[in-house]
């Protein structure tokens, strides 16, 4: 191609965007969704929005480390910079084949996201990004480089510049500009710089070594030491303010052998497996933990069945209530906070909204209980994946030094869902059964989303990743540290290929040839998959449930009764059996098997809900694989025989019994003094205590009274399940605008193209300045419209809508009548009708 045929380089980002095809524009809007909210009117507005500080900061924060290092190198390169200069800054004087191979992909990423524009011989970093990444005393460059010689000498006197040039061994010049250029050329010349530094004493070189990797600024006294004076005289250090000197960028690059960064990282660090297990063992372990998760949530909600803890005035659980919940679940408090937040995220608990506001189960909890175990687990796992509420923050402090409580405000972190998905996706890239080291996962995440500044071990994303690894194990998404088959399906990851020579021992290491897996490919390994659509997530969840279902234990319909008044449930029980046993016996221990203990109090509890002794015998005989032990039968009959002999009613309260000897025994008991009993009749005692206190007092004395109604019938007491009104699960807090779908992208690009056509198409008349609306009189506007209807020509119009918003449009009028013009609007890509009085003016488009 000749020079004449070569297309001119774009003069602005808007022109560069104008040269993109629809696919490239779609890629830009998909990677930076904030640019499409709202849809820009044209490409000029899109370019302006892409250069705003907030948008550029967000884009820089989502670059991987190598792409960010490429942008940082461009920030200290010339503006514009040829590709060869960028390559030299990234590879150094000696070159680096790996960096050179990865650089085109990183540059393409920056171009795609409109952070860099221009051809390879004139690369330009957008101005806002350059300002954010360029060095200054207030904001040192991430590269550790200082200002150029030209920038550092901007305020220096011409005489002083000439002195530096002469001391450096250069001929004096007739002006300061040429002197600075000569000094810059010297510092960029590797051979002459080596000769200049060869004569420097070791003390002076040591000063340069301290500043070479940054920060490049240092402090000097009014009378510098000889080692500093030599550097100042030759311009190897330049003063920037009284008492402050800087190492010029050109000198630092020479000392660094051309490298912009101390360590360039073109490849993502591999996720290192530290052990492997048979996939069947991983899936079985994860399934067991999944069932434990279901049992824990059920136990939590059962504990809150009649109304849970009170809601704090500021929202959330009190520290005391969280401790009580942890004791009830037999877990540490941070784990209890996780289960509480998980149930809340799944919509199973909420506040009841009453005057004495308390937490309780929602109606959705009852529906959840009726579902199969695999579907119940999927609901919990989906809620965990999508939740922005972060249980790991509970117990910490917010920015105002207020304590963060479970179920309280301030726990939302919009990055949580992305980190969870990414951690699980990294686990999915490993061979089946491989468990990674936590540190290698964290190192990979830091490479994919590096902090602009010093890396910390306690930054939010690192903590989110650590919490994800532990919570995934608690929930049963992973087993023994490796991703399970149902966990892999839950995130829509393809099935992993089994590794060769996979060791079967739980602590065995993977073979060496598996340790790097596919992570050493270039950026293909670092590509983050797009989130699943709702339809895709529904399919993934159904697949996960199908894979998990065969691994969950089948509920049993029997227990093993033992002579020591216990019953052993060798596995999970069917719900009617479990519910009845919870009333008839007390849980003594849990684990692989649950041990229930029968006590007089537990048997009386069953009688209080309306069961008879014969009912209990029949129930135990139907559900026990062993005969009913004699001690248990005697216990039931003995408690039943005493149950209801004494009747408690409301007078203030009274005790009624047909056996007056039993009443005499109660009156003679010293423990009854607090009840203030007195005989009203041979079979009736009156008490000053209320019925509930009287019941508890007599039971504490070893009797088995029963409450009765005003009609003399025994009252049957059943636990009252307290439920909140219908509640929806908390909505996750979005991390910026959502990614646009294909339909929105297509419509947005069409609107932007049409708006750009309206704002850039040449007109036959040029009555207005750029960006202003055309202005014509009403008669001229009407005549222009009518003529365009006859000729079929397109017009450029200015239009002000009912809200007062002004816009430019290109229309093809179809008819004009009744004060309205009906036309095909190229901007909106549809036929519309406009009131003529809202059209500010019209102009014909140029023929070309």
Strand % is 5-15%
Low-confidence stretches: 500-527, 765-769
Share of helix, binned: 40-55%
| Distance between the first and last residues' Cα | 26 Å
How many structural domains does the protein architecture include? Answer: 6
Count of helical stretches: 33
Mean pLDDT: 84
- Spatial shape: elongated
Structural class: alpha+beta
How many beta strands in the DSSP annotation? Answer: 25
> What would you call the quaternary organization?
single chain
In spatial order, strands of the major sheet run 18-19-17-16-20
Largest sheet: 5 strands, mixed
Computed over alpha carbons, the radius of gyration is 39 Å
Task: Write a short abstract of this structure.
This protein is of the alpha+beta class. The strands form 8 sheets. Strands 18-19-17-16-20 form a 5-stranded mixed β-sheet, with helices on one face.
Description:
With 848 residues, the chain is of the alpha+beta class. The protein folds into six domains: 13-133, no CATH class; 149-255, no CATH class; 276-549, no CATH class; 560-626, no CATH class; 645-707, no CATH class; 761-844, SH3 type barrels. It has 33 helices and 25 strands. It has a five-stranded mixed β-sheet, covered by helices on one side. A five-stranded antiparallel β-sheet has the order 24-23-22-21-25. A hairpin with a 2-residue loop joins β4 and β5 (244-246). The radius of gyration is 39 Å and the shape is elongated. Residues 500-527 and 765-769 have low confidence and may be disordered.
